[in-house]
Design brief:
Elements (H helix, E strand, L loop, with lengths): L17 H5 L8 H14 L14 H18 L12 H10 L5 H14 L3 H5 L3 H8 L5 H18 L8 H4 L7 H11 L9 H9 L8 H9 L7 H14 L27 H5 L32
Bound molecules: iron/sulfur cluster (SF4).
């Protein structure tokens, strides 16, 4: 893992009062640093690096900054969780396969009817393909996904006694199940620590200069070296939460971001606090979340059922 070009972080922001974040306000303690950073970003046109300009950040300093970001995110999103609705490992496996190329919301709106019709691997393995396709049609790519679901259900029935296995090596033998899906299932249904590198995770860790890798497996390996195993699953949820709510792909809401003083890419998005607040999504923007059945500590509203909004 090479050293990154970011320099040492400035005095990091203290966590802002939770309400200032959830109501869309910029981080209190980070406001000054964020403004300063924004001003110099405007002047130079470049992303602001935390710390002394021009001084490369050592690997150790990057690791400390990364862990600090993780701690800050833990305070911003104490309720971070997988955003797929599931009641058992089989449902999580199926929902994760369906989530390819669509939103978790659309999957959550589709799975209640799916699991009512096919509650077990045995039921799903015996499905009439055209009937299964109709049920999962709202998630897109429904023919390929139906093939995967029937195939993986048959493999569970025939090779694993109708149970989802709790080992990565077994999970990736199932049709349509790659390392990312396997890590989601292991981390959230079996309590096995795992880093899930999806599009949000990859984008954010590169913006934070934790890695320069593009390949998800290499990203996973480099991030795994920065954090203790016990943090891997929750770190994944926090980073994805931040990517979906604040640090968007096209227009990150830098002016409302509580970790702005720790971010070398501050200024890549909207720095005006008022405008940035309007970009916040889900509970941060006062909107419903993605889960129809969110965990009890989720501060936002549940998502609507399919066709209800
Ligand atoms: S929104 Fe993203 S790019 Fe902007 S300061 Fe926050 S983490 Fe950095």
């Amino acid at each position: 893992m090479g050293e990154q070009s970011a320099s040492q972080p400035t005095k990091a922001a203290k966590r802002p009062p939770r309400e200032s974040v959830t109501s869309g306000g910029p981080a209190k303690a980070s406001k000054g640093s964020a403004k300063k950073a924004g001003a110099s970003a405007k002047k130079s046109g470049a992303a602001v690096r935390p710390g002394k300009p021009g001084k490369p950040e050592s690997h150790l300093a990057m690791v400390r900054r990364a862990r600090r970001i993780n701690r800050e995110l833990a305070e911003v999103y104490p309720y971070a969780h997988p955003e797929l609705d599931f009641r058992n490992p089989f449902e999580l496996l199926v929902a994760t396969v369906l989530s390819a190329q669509t939103t978790d919301l659309r999957v959550n709106q589709t799975t209640p009817a799916l699991f009512a019709a096919y509650p077990t691997p045995e039921d799903m393995a015996a499905a009439v393909p055209e009937e299964l396709e109709e049920v999962i049609r709202p998630t897109g790519f429904f023919r390929a996904k139906a093939r995967s679901l029937i195939g993986l259900s048959a493999a569970l029935r025939d090779n694993f006694g109708g149970e989802v296995p709790g080992r990565l090596a077994d999970l990736v033998t199932l049709p349509g199940v790659g390392r990312k899906t396997a890590n989601v299932v292991l981390g959230n249904a079996f309590g096995v620590p795992g880093i899930t590198v999806d599009t949000h995770f990859g984008r954010l860790v590169r913006r934070w200069k934790w890695t320069e890798q593009e390949d998800p497996e290499k990203v996973e390996a480099e991030i795994a070296a920065i954090f203790p195993k016990s943090e891997w699953t929750m770190l994944s949820h926090r980073v994805v939460f931040h990517g979906r709510r604040i640090c968007h792909a096209r227009r990150p809401a830098c002016g409302a971001c509580p970790i702005a003083p720790l971010c070398p890419s501050y200024g890549e998005g909207e720095t005006d606090p008022e405008k940035a607040r309007k970009l916040l999504k889900y509970e941060m923007g006062g909107q419903p979340g993605q889960r129809l059945s969110p965990p009890p500590d989720y501060p936002g509203k549940p998502a609507p059922a399919l066709g209800a909004g």
